[in-house]
Specification:
The protein is of the alpha/beta class and 455 residues long. It contains 17 helices and 15 strands. The protein has three domains: 3-155 and 335-348, NAD(P)-binding Rossmann-like Domain (Rossmann fold); 158-184 and 223-331, no CATH class; 360-448, Type Iii Antifreeze Protein Isoform Hplc 12, CATH 3.90.1210.10. Helix 7 crosses helix 17 (436-448).
Length: 455
C-alpha cells in the first residue's frame, strides 16, 4: 500500500522507473494518458508497428510533441523523454529499460516479446492476456528461470480478481468463488463481427464514428474474452473452472453471494473454490438492475458462528444463510490502472497476478459447421469462439488429440470438417509449428502431461 511513496522517492532521487512499451493502441494509450501524472515513472521507449499511429495516439492523450522527438533510446533516457519507433528488439535489449509492458493484443507476437525480454533480464507486465491463457504457466516459469518477474496487468479484470482473492486469503477467508461480470445470453456464442453491434446496443454508424473494432468487441460478446480472463485467473490463483464451460448465472450484485454457492446449498457451483462469470441479463434478455457487468467480485465463507455474527453486526450483505459474503468492485479502469503493476514489479519485485499452475484452458470451438479447407480467423471472428475447460479436459479431447487453444486459432487452415459446437483439436488444423508461441505451448503440454507426445 506504499507504492506511491516509493515512486515519489524514486522521483526525488532522479531515478524514475523506466518503462518500455510495446504496442500503443487503445490499452497502451490509456496507460500513456496517466504516466505524466505518476511520479517516478518514465516511458523511455515505445515500439509500435506504426510509429506514426503511436504518435497520433500520444497527441490524442495530451502528450506534447517535444516529449517524443528523441532519435534513440539513449537520447530519450538522457533527456527524460520518450523514443518512439518500430524496433521492439532494441527496446527489450536496451539497458535503460527497467520494465517491459507488452500491450500488442497479439498473442503469438506477445509470447515472442515476453521470452525475448526475459532473455534480456527484463521483467514483463503482460497486458495481452490472450497469450497468458494458452501458455501463461510456462511464461511464468521462464521468467522465474531468468530471475525476473512476469505479471498480469492491473486494471484488466484478471489482475483485479487476483487482488481480491489475495485479500480474502490474507484475511483468512476461504474463497468460494471469484470472477467478473459480463453481458451474456447463450446465443451470443454464435455472434460475428456482422452481428455484434445489434447485441451490443450500438448502430453500425455509431460504432464507425467511435472507431470501434467489431472483431475485438465481438470477442467480449461471444464469450471468448471472459473465458480467456477466467483461465488466467484460475491458473494464477489455483481456483478450478466449470467442467463444461462457464455457466454465466444471472445475478444482481445483491444476489451474487446467493448464486455463487455450491449446488448442494442452492447455488450454481459444482464445488467450492471456482471461477465463474455473472451475467447482467436475465435469460429472457431483461437487464438486471445494479449489475456487475463491468466489475469483479470474490465470494468468501464465514466458517464459524463468530465470523458470521460479525458479518451480521457490520451489515455485510450475505446470502440468506449468513455464511457467504461477496466483496466487489463494480468498475475497472483498464489501461488507466496499469501503473500499479509497473510499480509493483519494479519496486517490490512482485507480480499483480501470475500463473502458478495449469488449471484451465480456452479451446477454439466452432460457431457453425466448418468445412475442410476453411481458414480460422481466431478470437472474435466468424469461425470460432473460446470455451473455458479444465486443462485436463482440453488435453484429453477427442482421444487425446488435445484441444486447439484459441490463441493459436488465427490464420490456420482446417484439414477436416468440424460441426457447430464442437471443440477443435490440433489434428483438425494445419498449424504453423515454427513460432515460439507454438513451441512454448507444446512444451507446456509435455511438462504438465509428460506421457503425451507433441507434434
Amino acid at each position: 500500500m506504499n507504492l506511491h511513496a516509493k515512486l515519489k522517492q524514486r522521483a526525488a532521487a532522479g531515478r524514475p522507473v523506466r518503462v518500455g512499451l510495446i504496442g500503443a493502441g487503445k490499452f497502451g494509450s490509456m496507460y500513456l494518458a496517466q504516466v505524466p501524472r505518476i511520479p517516478g515513472m518514465q516511458v523511455v521507449a515505445i515500439a509500435d508497428l506504426s510509429p506514426a499511429a503511436a504518435l497520433r495516439n500520444l497527441a490524442r492523450v495530451g502528450w506534447p510533441e517535444a516529449q517524443t522527438q528523441p532519435k534513440s533510446i539513449d537520447e530519450a533516457a538522457a533527456q527524460g523523454r520518450t523514443h518512439v519507433g518500430d524496433d521492439w528488439r532494441a527496446l527489450v535489449a536496451h539497458p535503460a529499460v527497467d520494465v517491459v509492458v507488452e500491450c500488442t493484443g497479439h498473442p503469438i507476437a506477445a509470447v515472442e516479446h515476453c521470452l525475448s525480454a526475459f532473455r534480456n533480464g527484463k521483467p514483463v507486465v503482460n497486458v495481452t492476456v490472450e497469450a497468458d491463457a494458452f501458455c501463461g504457466p510456462l511464461l511464468a516459469r521462464r521468467a522465474a528461470e531468468a530471475g525476473v518477474v512476469y505479471s498480469l496487468a492491473f486494471g484488466d479484470q484478471p489482475a483485479l480478481i487476483c487482488d481480491l482473492v489475495d485479500w480474502a486469503r490474507t484475511c483468512g477467508f476461504p474463497v468460494v468463488a471469484a470472477g467478473r461480470g459480463h453481458k451474456w445470453l447463450p446465443q451470443y456464442a454464435q455472434s460475428t463481427p456482422d452481428t455484434v453491434w445489434d447485441h451490443w446496443g450500438l448502430s453500425p454508424e455509431q460504432a464507425a464514428r467511435g472507431g470501434l473494432n467489431p472483431k475485438m468487441f465481438n470477442s467480449f460478446l461471444d464469450g471468448s474474452k471472459p473465458s480467456i480472463e477466467s483461465a488466467a485467473v484460475a491458473n494464477a490463483t489455483g481456483l478450478t473452472v466449470p467442467s463444461n464451460g462457464l455457466l454465466y448465472p444471472p445475478a444482481s450484485v445483491e444476489d451474487i453471494p446467493r448464486v455463487t454457492r455450491p449446488k448442494t446449498e442452492g447455488g450454481v457451483l459444482e464445488h467450492k473454490g471456482m471461477v465463474e462469470v455473472i451475467s447482467s441479463l436475465e435469460p429472457d434478455g431483461r437487464v438486471i438492475p445494479y449489475d456487475i457487468r463491468m466489475g469483479v467480485w470474490v465470494t468468501v465463507e464465514g466458517e464459524t458462528d463468530y465470523i458470521r455474527h460479525c458479518f451480521e453486526e457490520y451489515k455485510a450483505h450475505t446470502d440468506p444463510s449468513g455464511r457467504y459474503f461477496t466483496l466487489y468492485k463494480r468498475w475497472h479502469l483498464i489501461g488507466l490502472e496499469v501503473g500499479v503493476s509497473v510499480a509493483s514489479v519494479a519496486l517490490r519485485g512482485e507480480a499483480t497476478g501470475a500463473a502458478i499452475g495449469w488449471n484451465a484452458d480456452v479451446v477454439a470451438t466452432a460457431k457453425r459447421d466448418l468445412a475442410a479447407g476453411e481458414v480460422l480467423d481466431g478470437e472474435g471472428g466468424y469461425t470460432v469462439w473460446g470455451k473455458l475447460l479444465p486443462a485436463a479436459t482440453s488435453l484429453s479431447l477427442r482421444e487425446g488429440e488435445g484441444g486447439l487453444p484459441l490463441g493459436l486459432a488465427h490464420d490456420v487452415k482446417l484439414v477436416r470438417a468440424v460441426k457447430q459446437g464442437q471443440s477443435l483439436t490440433w489434428a483438425d488444423v494445419a498449424v504453423d509449428t515454427g513460432t515460439e508461441a507454438y513451441r512454448l505451448r507444446r512444451a507446456m503440454e509435455d511438462l504438465f502431461a509428460p506421457a503425451r507426445t507433441s507434434g
